């Protein structure tokens, strides 16, 4: 009891009220639980959970009942922990699913409970003994398939790895033992190498005058080794990040400075450099990873990151509120786990097996982060389509969705989104609405639920009205009057390849989405045109006769149009100041500026393209360009590239280097430029490096 009190007193500034509460709870002290409580509280303190969370956990373990005077925040955590989420033997799959659903809903209502529950699970499985009981075996499977992926989804990578290590130890004991023996044989040699590398890194930090930098080392978790062996068919000798040395500095600039020095001393392994600073992982992880050949001629991974990046790597999404004021921290994390609540809410009508499958899919799939045109970041499971995006905004947006723009390019509904995409949904009042095929397109449980709801509540009469309206609009878009075409002569049901008994069935099928409106419209228009060849007249608007004035825009661009237009730059070609440019009038989004030679211009509506030139009074515009470099293998290439560009005064924003099938190295460099001349100089500098075979700007 005293050990627990001392632990809490030493880590929190308790007032008199807190001390009395702690004493009252510990009256119920259970000596048998002391080791468990101390271990878990230590973990919660390391995780930097607040006093309210820890006191609620302590009361939960000691079966203490709070009175009404206790702080509401403590009571909230306590009540969630006290809820009965036990899965008993003999329960049906539906009953088990109901328990899981209730537990996840409760946990998502207070995110701190997730951390507490995960650490309780970690302690319990750490004390398992072989052979396992049936309940223990099932518990490990649930942890491996549901709770460990949940921890990873939240960015709690260390906790996730510890859970997975125990699952591997007990569910695949022989494999675990063989791995442990193999790794232990290398322990002494690895430790010597870490000491040698650490000394050299200390010299680098001293040379760069980075007094606040720190160095640490880690051993790769057995579960991570096993996954890599199993998924990629590697042997232990091919796993290069078995041990890793980590360098933590203050700024991003210092990260790249340390990287350059390391590559100047050690030979980097080709294709083993990862720039997660320029291109973060889906859960927000950032760091530079490089694998070098160490003194013992074996690979050694070195990770370089800032303190802020390290906090995110250690605490995941919780890092965003652990270091803020109490009033902000819960609301910020609530946003981060909205996907968890969404799964719970959208799976109410699923069977037990369907719910568990949905939960596993959403947790085990990777995550991607995409943006709205206004910069709002939304999270989806890997494989989600633009239709998932549309339904995530609102059911009505999803139901009216006819396509999307991804990074400015029009794409169909089935297009899968990628990390970092900017998505703009295209809707139409004439949309045929959801079809049953959409259920095969969408990936998220929320979108599936909304589509099913639409079919469940939509009346046939509404489908008839919608289908008729869609057909009328399609006919109008072709330049004809619906009153002249929607007559019995052209609505002869036998002429269509689809089987309809009545006109209403035809219209309902269009409205329901089972029949493309254009197929019907094309057939009707074809028949009408055969009867009225001499009467058809096309109205062509000659926009070239319109007089347009050139006015200056505040962004430093002269646009052949209104000076009040919003200006944005196309991400597909990233125009640089001084290059020939062209404007495209977007619907509701002002003018998008492309390079004049941008390959995507040919896919845009020609009548919306307008002339645009740079304002000569503006000296430059800072932007970033991607340059792709093809080179032969060279130990010093990345060092030389970095040194040459930096010495020429250019700022490197990111690097990514990979080995291709022809044993060549493809490097993508993200570089800050101000004018077109900068880009020309950069390409010439890179071309002069001996091992470079080709260099070009991405998008050309």
Describe this structure in words.
With 700 residues, the protein is α+β, with helices and mostly antiparallel strands. It folds into 6 domains: 2-173, Hypothetical protein af1432, CATH 1.10.3210.10; 186-318, Beta Polymerase, domain 2, CATH 3.30.460.10; 365-452, Beta-grasp domain (Ubiquitin-like (UB roll)), CATH 3.10.20; 460-531, no CATH class; 546-614, no CATH class; 623-697, 2-Layer Sandwich (Alpha-Beta Plaits). The protein contains 28 helices and 21 strands. The strands form 5 sheets. Strands 1, 2, 3, 4, 5 and 6 form a 6-stranded mixed sheet that branches. α6 (93-109) packs across α7 and α17 (338-346) runs parallel beside α22 (445-457). The radius of gyration is 31 Å and the shape is globular. It starts with a helix and ends with a strand.
Oligomer state of the chains in this structure:
single chain
Distance between the termini: 70 Å
Please indicate the count of domains.
Answer: 6
Name the poorly predicted regions.
Answer: 324-332, 536-552
Q: What percent of residues are in strands? A: 15-25%
CATH homologous superfamily identity of the largest domain:
Hypothetical protein af1432
The CATH topology of the largest domain turns out to be Hypothetical protein af1432
**Shape estimate:** globular
Count helical runs. Answer: 28
**Mean of residue pLDDT?**
80
The helix/strand class is alpha+beta
Task: Give the name of the CATH architecture of the largest domain.
Answer: Orthogonal Bundle
Tally of strands: 21
Q: What's the level 1 CATH class of the largest domain?
A: Mainly Alpha
Radius of gyration: 31 Å
Helix content: 40-55%
Strand count, sense and barrel status of the largest sheet are: 6 strands, mixed
């Amino acid at each position: 009891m005293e050990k627990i009190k001392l632990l809490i007193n030493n880590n929190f500034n308790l007032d008199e009220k807190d001390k009395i509460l702690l004493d009252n709870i510990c009256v119920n002290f259970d000596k048998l639980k002391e080791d468990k409580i101390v271990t878990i509280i230590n973990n919660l303190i390391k995780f930097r959970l607040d006093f309210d969370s820890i006191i609620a956990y302590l009361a939960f373990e000691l079966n203490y009942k709070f009175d009404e005077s206790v702080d509401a925040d403590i009571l909230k955590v306590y009540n969630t922990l006290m809820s009965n989420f036990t899965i008993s033997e003999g329960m049906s799959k539906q009953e088990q699913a109901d328990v899981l659903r209730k537990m996840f809903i409760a946990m998502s209502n207070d995110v701190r409970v997730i951390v507490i529950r995960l650490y309780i699970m970690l302690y319990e499985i750490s004390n398992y003994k072989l052979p396992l009981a049936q309940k223990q075996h099932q518990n490990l499977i649930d942890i491996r398939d549901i709770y460990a992926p949940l921890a990873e989804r939240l960015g709690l990578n260390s906790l996730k790895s510890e859970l997975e290590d125990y699952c591997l130890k007990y569910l695949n004991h022989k494999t675990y033992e063989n791995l442990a023996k193999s790794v232990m044989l290398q322990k002494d040699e690895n430790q010597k190498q870490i000491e040698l590398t650490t000394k050299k890194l200390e010299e680098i930090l001293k040379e760069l005058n980075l007094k606040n930098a720190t160095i640490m080392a880690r051993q790769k978790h057995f579960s991570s080794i096993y996954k890599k062996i199993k998924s990629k068919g590697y042997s232990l000798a091919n796993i290069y990040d078995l041990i890793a040395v980590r360098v933590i500095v203050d700024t991003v600039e210092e990260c790249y400075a340390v990287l350059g020095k390391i590559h100047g001393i050690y030979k980097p392994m080709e294709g083993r450099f990862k720039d997660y600073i320029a291109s973060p992982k889906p859960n927000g992880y950032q760091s530079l990873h490089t694998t070098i050949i160490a003194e013992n001629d074996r690979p050694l991974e070195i990770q370089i990151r800032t303190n802020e990046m390290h906090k995110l790597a250690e605490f995941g999404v919780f890092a965003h509120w652990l270091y803020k004021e109490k009033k902000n921290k819960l609301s910020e994390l609530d946003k981060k786990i909205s996907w968890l609540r969404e799964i719970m809410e959208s799976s109410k009508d699923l069977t037990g097996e369907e719910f568990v499958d949905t939960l596993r899919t959403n947790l085990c799939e990777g995550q991607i982060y995409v943006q709205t045109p206004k910069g709002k970041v939304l999270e989806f499971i890997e494989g989600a389509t633009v239709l998932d995006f549309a339904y995530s905004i609102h059911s009505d947006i999803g139901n009216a969705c006819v396509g999307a723009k991804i990074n400015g390019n029009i794409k169909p509904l089935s297009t899968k989104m990628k990390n970092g995409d900017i998505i703009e949904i295209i809707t139409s009042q004439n949309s045929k609405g959801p079809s049953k095929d959409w259920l095969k397109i969408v990936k998220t449980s929320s979108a599936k639920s909304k589509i099913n709801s639409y079919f469940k509540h939509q009346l046939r009469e509404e489908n008839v009205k919608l289908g008729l309206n869609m057909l009328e609009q399609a006919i109008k878009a072709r330049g004809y009057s619906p009153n002249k075409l929607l007559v019995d002569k052209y609505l002869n049901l036998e002429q269509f390849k689809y089987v309809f008994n009545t006109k209403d069935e035809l219209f309902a099928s269009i409205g329901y989405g089972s029949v493309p409106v254009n197929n019907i419209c094309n057939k009707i228009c074809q028949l009408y045109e055969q009867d009225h060849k001499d009467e058809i007249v096309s109205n062509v608007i000659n926009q070239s006769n319109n007089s347009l004035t050139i006015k200056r825009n505040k962004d430093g661009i002269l646009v052949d149009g209104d000076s009040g237009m919003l200006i944005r730059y196309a991400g597909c070609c990233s125009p640089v100041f001084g290059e020939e440019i062209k404007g495209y009038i977007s619907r509701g989004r002002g003018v998008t500026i492309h390079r004049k030679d941008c390959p995507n211009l040919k896919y845009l509506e020609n009548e919306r393209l307008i002339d645009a030139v740079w304002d000569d009074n503006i000296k430059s515009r800072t932007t970033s360009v991607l340059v792709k470099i093809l080179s032969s293998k060279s130990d010093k290439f990345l060092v030389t590239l970095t040194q040459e560009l930096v010495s020429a005064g250019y700022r490197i924003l990111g690097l990514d280097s990979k080995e291709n099938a022809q044993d060549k190295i493809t490097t993508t460099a993200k570089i800050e430029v101000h004018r077109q001349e900068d880009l020309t100089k950069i390409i010439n500098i890179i071309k002069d490096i001996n091992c470079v075979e080709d260099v070009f700007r991405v998008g050309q």
